[in-house]
Amino acid sequence: xxxxxxxxxxxxxxxxxxxxxxxxxxxxxxxxxxxxxxxxxxxxxxxxxxxxxxxxxxxxxxxxxxxxxxxxxxxxxxxxxxxxxxxxxxxxxxxxxxxxxxxxxxxxxxxxxxxxxxxxxxxxxxxxxxxxxxxxxxxxxxxxxxxxxxxxxxxxxxxxxxxxxxxxxxxx
Amino acid sequence: xxxxxxxxxxxxxxxxxxxxxxxxxxxxxxxxxxxxxxxxxxxxxxxxxxxxxxxxxxxxxxxxxxxxxxxxxxxxxxxxxxxxxxxxxxxxxxxxxxxxxxxxxxxxxxxxxxxxxxxxxxxxxxxxxxxxxxxxxxxxxxxxxxxxxxxxxxxxxxxxxxxxxxxxxxxxxxxxxxxxxxxxxxxxxxxxxxxxxxxxxxxxxxxxxxxxxxxxxxxxxxxxxxxxxxxxxxxxxxxxxxxxxxxxxxxxxxxxxxxxxxxxxxxxxxxxxxxxxxxxxxxxxxxxxxxxxxxxxxxxxxxxxxxxxxxxxxxxxxxxxxxxxxxxxxxxxxxxxxxxxxxxxxxxxxxxxxxxxxxxxxxxxxxxxxxxxxxxxxxxxxxxx
Amino acid sequence: xxxxxxxxxxxxxxxxxxxxxxxxxxxxxxxxxxxxxxxxxxxxxxxxxxxxxxxxxxxxxxxxxxxxxxxxxxxxxxxxxxxxxxxxxxxxxxxxxxxxxxxxxxxxxxxxxxxxxxxxxxxxxxxxxxxxxxxxxxxxxxxxxxxxxxxxxxxxxxxxxxxxxxxxxxxxxxxxxxxxxxxxxxxxxxxxxxxxxxxxxxxxxxxxxxxxxxxxxxxxxxxxxxxxxxxxxxxxxxxxxxxxxxxxxxxxxxxxxxxxxxxxxxxxxxxxxxxxxxxxxxxxxxxxxxxxxxxxxxxxxxxxxxxxxxxxxxxxxxxxxxxxxxxxxxxxxxxxxxxxxxxxxxxxxxxxxxxxxxxxxxxxxxxxxxxxxxxxxxxxxxxxxxxxxxxxxxxxxxxxxxxxxxxxxxxxxxxx
Lengths: 172, 385, 416
Known about the structure:
The complex is a heterotrimer.
Chain A lengths: L1 H22 L3 H21 L3 H25 L2 H6 L7 H24 L19 H10 L3 H25 L1
Helix pairs in contact in A: 1-2, 2-3
Chain B lengths: L26 E5 L11 E7 L2 E8 L7 H5 L4 H9 L6 H16 L5 H30 L3 H21 L8 E2 L2 E2 L7 H23 L3 H7 L7 H6 L5 H5 L6 H4 L20 H24 L19 E9 L2 E9 L5 E7 L1 H6 L2 H5 L4 H11 L3 H5 L1
Antiparallel strand pairs in B: 1-2, 2-3, 4-5, 6-7, 7-8
Chain C lengths: L1 H9 L1 H35 L15 H11 L10 H17 L11 E5 L2 E5 L9 H22 L3 H24 L1 H7 L4 H6 L4 E2 L4 E2 L11 H14 L11 H4 L9 H26 L17 H18 L4 H23 L1 H30 L5 H30 L3
Antiparallel strand pairs in C: 1-2, 3-4
Helix pairs in contact in C: 2-3, 2-14, 3-11, 4-5, 4-11, 5-6, 6-9, 6-15, 7-15, 9-11, 9-15, 11-14, 12-13
């Protein structure tokens, strides 16, 4: 019961602020609503007992990436962007794409509902106490079976970082 | 801040400079005239690239009172209190310069006793002025505590001045031809007590600042002014001496009783903010030295030379300069033989020193700008007159 | 009626948590108010002044006067500001700062009490999370929003520069802050703050020294503590890293355009952050609520009441000599009350034992806060580029080295 209330609470916030995000003119407002969406999603993660994911979502996306977004938005000229009527040409393309996507999702949900006991919604979440500490589980899988992919990802990030430094250096 | 537009606060200024941060245009930042660290009503227009100063322009005149013009409509004695209002934190020095200039014009000389007392008070005033500089300079760089320490000691000097002439800030301590008041009974004792106390206190300031790595980081290499540049721009005072030029009017062209006392002229090497700090600190010590010598040496005798009630200097002109706390303070007075000066031109040290600001600030950060304004030790009353 | 009681009883966990939230909020806001008085007093004495002295004896009612002033001042909205964001920013600042205290545990033993015949048990602290430390850092990471948005929304240049500075500063120091505590996490093997403290219980060096992380373990976390403390000062925007609100350069930085209660929110947020990072430093490096003395020394249990008694007597003596009538009445009264409290503690041994943990915890936090104020009174301010250099070139490499050395130490000697 409580779980469901919490889920719908966060889901409503996520969807609502996502809508607000794409309809706001001011880029900073959009960024704030995107942040809200991310936070609400993090809340859903927590409701699913994925503590580590919840924290990573907040620290990385909200605390890191979105702050950078806002940082950049604060610096660049918004007046020009606000004057342009955005996406006016792609209106019909966008509508068609959105309809196609809605059809796909709807079809999938409909088919899933028809299979007996195979609904998409996760049912019967195990109690929080019975689960191993989430952070530890993530660490074990990251440094255990997925060691190689983890290292590749970190190498990729390192390369990206060095690349950024090199590009920034050239300008000075 | 009139140029800001809605949500475009970062884009004021229209000249495009593609090399700036994130391609944003240069930011024009107005510092002052109502800014906590422009020391009065100085307005500095800064052209910023990010937080780096690409250019600057000092806008002055907010405190202009037409002091020089006022002089043409006052008698010589009447004008004397006006000069106190120029560098209002070193009123005694201003008065000394003016009185000596008029004396020179009239061919009068103050009696020896007056000269020594004048020197003593002027040196006390120099310490007070430097203390005020240190207080505000440290506050600009973010150290709160020296402010209160400095004002504590400055208070003692102001008390001595108050006991001497009744006023603390705009003292009008001297008269043309000498002094109006003789030294009060316990003045020598008061000064001696202050000097002994102050030498201990100055160590306290240095404990807080001189070895402090943050202070060093904020002052060393900031606002460097080479000796040649300083001379070329007519910069004087501690700012000039910190750039390695040994020029002090007290030594070069002694006035008052400075030829009777021993003291050293501290000079700096690098001409940066830290050197100016060191030079001024050492100057305070030298001032204490002069005061201590003066205490034992006040000769007996009259305090006022014979000048009439109505001053009518002969036709002619005179330029007399003294070493005020902030630099060379010169008075150029033209007399047409009447009771009022025909023309008075004042060479204020702050005004001339402020010229060096742009050269010193270019390429530094906004935070350094306040350090540089502080290290120039300007008083806007004197800049604008 | 009984239905309501039953429902409450069923959800006693929620009810207790809410009551604890309310209580903590009340205590915290009072402490915040008096912290401002404390800071002003300490700063004043450092600077050879007296500080607030007029409102109440020794200025003790000054926080009340300040609070009233904040409430009743005009609340202007400058022209051209972005109203929504302008209002959101101070709320964010304060709310986040207060939230972060929810995960701090204040004492070891749970509090047992009974209402209407039912026994309840609750820990000191609002929640006890497995990932308490991570939650704290997540909230700290969000703290930058309040400042950055305030700077942007004010539509003015000084706040904008202040906001930019603070965003950059907080993001840079977050890295060092997080890295500096990894050593502690390694040694405790947990993100749970309670477990981190428990791992530091016990004695070493012939029982003379406590086994606090800062001095003990396979690799003493002294470097980690240094990095943490410096980064924490920068993260809370306090002197000598108070660049976002450098009054001599950027007027008041990001909160230049704020007045009245909105300003008070930023102000309280800053103080709350100060408390949080001090609590965290205590928990991670200085053994939380563990006493610095061996448990065999039972006389140390009387330190709280001794301190109270000394304070009470001092207040009594001072109060009798105080200038104003109010002070003559109030101060001796408070002094007597403190003495009585200390005597009561002596008589009720269980209570005395119970408050030992919270006492040491709060004492350590208090010492850290004193340090904050001390530094503000002593040091000049860093410059922006110097600050960045310290964050990236000194603290970050140092804290990474600390992680490496700690892991090596644990590999070599094991955990203790």
